[in-house]
Amino acid sequence: MRQPNIKYKLFILIFGITSFVWSQNKATYTYAIKGSDTLKLDVHSPENMKPNDSLPVLLWMHGGGFSGGTRDNAHHEQKLAEYVTTKGYIGISISYRLLRKGTETGFGCDCPKADKLETFKQAAIDYLDATKFVFDNKTELQIDPTKIIAGGSSAGAEGVLNAVYMKSFFIDDLEHYKDVSFAGVFSLAGALVNAEYITKHNALPTVLFHGTDDNLVPFASAPHHYCSPEKPGYLLLDGSETIAVKLDELETSYYLHKVIGGRHELSSIPFDELDAVFEFFNKTVLHDEVIQTKKIITKKSNQN
C-alpha cells in the first residue's frame, strides 16, 4: 500500500488556524491525512509547565482489534494521559487507521496471514508518522525527543512493539524515520511478529502486562488468536513472556507483570499499578539504571 507524502511543514503552518483546540492543558493536532482518514493526536501537558521545559513523553496507541477504540476515551486513554502529566511527563494519545473495521474477516482466524501482516505494517507506519510529527515539532510541544516512551494496549501494543523493535522488517523507507528514536516501551497484552528482531542495539527498558491465558494475544510464543495451522489467519507471534526472556538475555531493563490465569483483560490500563510503572521508567529511562523485575500474581477465581 502506497503512502501519501505527509506535508509536515504545512501542518506546522496551520497550527494556529485549524489543527488544534485548547482545553485546559490539552491540544489536538492533525499529524497526517491518509485517504479518508484524518489522523490526530492529543497532547496533554502539565499545568505548571514552564516556557523552557523539555519533558519526557508517553506516546500512546489505543487498542480495539484494529477496528475500534479511540484516542480520547475519557475513562482510559485520556485518563492515562492526564495521569502522566502529574508525573512530569507529557501524555500524547494518537488515532490511527482502523484497517479491519467493517471487513468480512475481521482480525481473527478467518483473516489471512498476509492481511494481518499488512495491518501490523500500516499500524507501525502510522505510529512512526505520529512519532516523527512529535519529533519534528519538539520545540513547540516542549518534549525531550530522547525520552519518548512508546506505549499501547492490545492492538495498539502490537503496533507499538512492531514499530519499535521490527522497524527494519516492516518499513521500506527507513531513512524517512532516521531521526525517530524511543527510550522505553509500555505494552499491555501485546506481541510482536518475531522477538529475534530485538537486539543489543535496539533493546529498551520495557514494561509488559499480560495474562498467561490470554485467548487473543499469546502470552509467550503461539499463534495469534490461537488459530489452528489450517486456518487462513494462522500467524505465530511472540508475546510478553518471550520478549522478557529476550530482554533478560540482553541484560536490558524490563518489568513483567504476569497474571497466572489472566486473559485479555490485562489489556486494560492498570491505573492502580501506574505508580510502580513510572517509578520503573524514572529509574531506567531518566536515570539509566538497569532493573529486571517480574511481578507474578494469580488471578482470583471469581474474576472475569
Radius of gyration: 18 Å
CATH architecture: 3-Layer(aba) Sandwich
Biggest beta sheet summary: 9 strands, mixed
Work out the strand percent.
Answer: 15-25%
Q: What's the count of strands? A: 12
Q: Uncertain regions: pLDDT < 50 for 5+ in a row?
A: 1-24
Mean pLDDT across all amino acids: 92
What is the chain-wise order of helices and strands? Answer: HEEEHEHHEHHEEEEEHEHE
Pfam families: BD-FAE
Organism: Hwangdonia seohaensis
Protein name: Alpha/beta hydrolase
Keywords: Hydrolase
Structure description:
With 304 residues, this protein is an alpha/beta fold. The chain has one domain: Rossmann fold, CATH 3.40.50.1820. Helix content is 27%, strand content 24%. The chain is built from eight helices and twelve strands. The protein has helices at residues 8-13, 77-85, 113-136, 138-141, 155-165, 167-170, 240-249, 274-286, and strands spanning 26-34, 37-44, 55-61, 90-94, 143-153, 184-188, 191-192, 206-211, 221-223, 236-239, 254-260, 292-298. The protein has a nine-stranded mixed β-sheet, with helices on both faces. A three-stranded antiparallel β-sheet has the order 7-10-9. Residues 1-24 have low confidence and may be disordered.
Q: How would you summarize this macromolecular structure in one to three sentences?
A:
By secondary structure, this protein is α/β, with parallel strands linked by helices.
Jot down its keywords.
three-stranded antiparallel beta sheet; hydrolase activity; disordered N terminus; alpha/beta; nine-stranded mixed beta sheet; Rossmann fold; Alpha/beta hydrolase; BD-FAE-like_dom; GDXG_lipolytic_enzyme; 304 residues; hydrolase; single chain
